[in-house]
Amino acid sequence: MMMHCWAVFLPVWILLVVGSLPRGVAASEAINATAQEEKPAGFSWDVGSGTPAELPPGQLSLEDPVVPETLETLAGRIGWARLADRSQMAPVRVVVTPVESAEGRVGHQVQIAFTLQASLASFQEKAGGEQALGVHADTAGNSVRLLTEDEKEQADPGPQDPGPQDPGATLGFLSMTLLNRVDLQGVVQAVRHDAADGVRLTWAFDHRFGNATGLQPCFRRWGSNPLGERVLGDPQPYAGAGGVIIARDVSELVEATDRPLLLVESRMVFAEPKDWFGGGNLLRAKIPLLAQEGVRNLRRRLAAEGK
Fold first, then answer.
1. What is the dihedral of CA 139, 142, 148, 150, to 10 degrees?
2. Which pTM was predicted?
């Protein structure tokens, strides 16, 4: 799956491997918010200038039934009929909201809604044979791998952060290139929870590794030396990112068809340091197009695996 922007790549890519995460993970003390706003412990961080990370309001949950009103709300101006279209080119709804502080924009909230032609069981089965947090990510400079046991021991919880207490949490080291301008890396924590007709995945950069050499959340900006050669700058601390992905089987709510359909809602919040793109709108402007591209590639892959 070719992706060039982690803000879209990460939610869509994580969705590809939810089947390989431990199943049946229940909500625990590591998830410290309401059922619909579940967040792993690593989610508690500032976007910048003391601004707390907060997800955009969500519509899907595993606890409440999906009703027609939910479908229309998620579809927005696109309309549910178009969002649920069976074509691989069906639209994707993307809402991007800047996170502001007294010093200006410090990050973004992103909500993405789309549908997939796949039953929940077959989708999980297709993903279930893949290595958790370790496949289909080594593309265009992007890679992810599971942490070793020795690396996990480098976690250093502070007095305000007890760290993940859920044994089902999966830890992976992520390395990504953003729009060919910024390299980003860090440990990502993911927790999966299953229900009869859906699955939820929560993820966040894990700041317990902030002092772990080679594992800490950081970014490096590409520049040029006096000879015009591309060079990578020194690592800078990265405030963080996190989100929630929920997929629900809505086949029974689709008229005149017996084919399965999944509805997916991805919500995330991430910090965008001014050093990335000079405070411009480059990243924000590309997110909708990249989301559409990522979802279409995901649909193609699922269709090919289903043949």
1. 150
2. 0.84
